[in-house]
Amino acid sequence: MDTKCENKCGPGYPSPLEAMKGPREKIVYLPCIYRNTNTEAPDYLATVDIDPKSPQYCQVIHRLPMPNLKDELHHSGWNTCSSCFGDSTKSRTKLVLPCLISSRIYVVDVGTEPRAPKLHKVVEAKDIHAKCNLGYLHTSHCLASGEVMVSSLGDPQGNGKGGFVLLDGETFEVKGTWERPGGAAPMGYDFWYQPRHNVMISTEWAAPNVLRDGFNPADVEAGLYGSHLNVWDWQRHEIVQNLPLPDGLIPLEIRFLHNPAASQGFVGCALSSNIHRFYKNEKGTWSVEKVIQVPPKKVKGWILPEMPGLITDILLSLDDRFLYFSNWLHGDLRQYDISDPKRPRLTGQLFLGGSIVKGGPVQVLEDQELKCQPEPLVVKGKRVAGGPQMIQLSLDGKRLYLTTSLYSGWDKQFYPDLVKEGSVMLQIDVDTEKGGLKLNPNFLVDFGKEPLGPALAHELRYPGGDCSSDIWL
Predict the structure, then answer these.
(1) With contact defined as beta carbons under 8 Å apart, do 377 and 384 qualify?
(2) Model confidence over 248-284: pLDDT tens digits?
(3) Angle at 463 between CA 177 and CA 419, to 5 degrees
(4) Number of domains, the chain
(5) How many whole angstroms separate alpha carbon 314 and alpha carbon 300?
(6) Does 8 map to a domain?
(7) 297: which strand partners?
(8) Where residue 170 sits, what CATH number does that domain have?
(9) Domain presence at residue 282
(10) 10 within domain boundaries
(11) Is 468 part of any domain?
């Protein structure tokens, strides 16, 4: 691929290492949710100024409300990304916002005025139901074909069904399912593809009817939560392996290494609080092994006698050197050196809120890692409710941004104060040489002070792409 391109390149960067040389992020987009809060208003897309030289630094500079109530905006993706770098007819101008509960897809134009996005199109749930028999949408990735693919958690009735909605990348019309008819996985959530190995791997949360209104431990005992990876043949669009995760419950975010030749990656298992490495074995099929375990804490004053870390988001730096993940319940953010992917080494850890802070309702009786319960986090006078959740890394790997809301139904159950006070966005400085994390005490975006009431801000996206939305071929 021509890396110079003489200004005729498509979107993104020719390689992950080239992306690391990209410009510093100046704005970020975050879906903000009002479902399950005291505010009866539509979810909206917030644009936040994160340029330290700007007079509007750390401020929400634009809000784009959606036309409907209770959508539960969640994750987002682009109309096109670095997988289309070789196509000069493509440009990254539309942000695709699937809705976890309403099953709509909103397409937002960020190309005309990045600081003030506009709604471009609404793909109604009825079209997705009729053409795909899918609903409850999660991850959106662009494909090298120019199409957009969105994963589902269920069918229109809320039963588990891990399929994929295919959208035309220009008109955003629903084309049908990516998978062959009748070939959906039992459950769905996230996915990542690696064409050089003819593979896509998808993860499993639970059926929408199981998770929609909160978490019930009995559903875990009943086997209603995911515990497998589904391995797909990328060319044939069908499942070729159903990989059980040893001691892995609720596999959520999945990341291949960014190097497109790599045949391995990592998945975070939320409830079992461990990280598994998946890899292509000598037979040419796929295997998994557990490489990190966060020990649970024995507690009093919580819904269970043991509290898991609850790994909810993971990220890999663009040079494939560091793995980051958040423990939403314990409240810590971690950095591991993965130079040897089989043996990740802890190089940074920060406690940023969580359920086990001093003075809260939970008393820790036994802890394999800490000598005492961490102090509550206060940033610029604001006591942070909730724990670190969605994370996004700057292209150069030196800044990590995070938000504290997981999903409104679970926020309400585990962190009622988070719903009352709104989530926050924080920034962490990263030591990319030796490893290490340090909170920036001067950075706070407080979504508790939004004009219509406290909001739950979720996933973060930069206009120029990032390490969880770009896939290289």
Answers:
(1) yes
(2) 999 999 999 999 999 999 999 999 999 999 999 999 9
(3) 80
(4) 1
(5) 28
(6) no
(7) 307
(8) 2.130.10.10
(9) yes
(10) no
(11) no
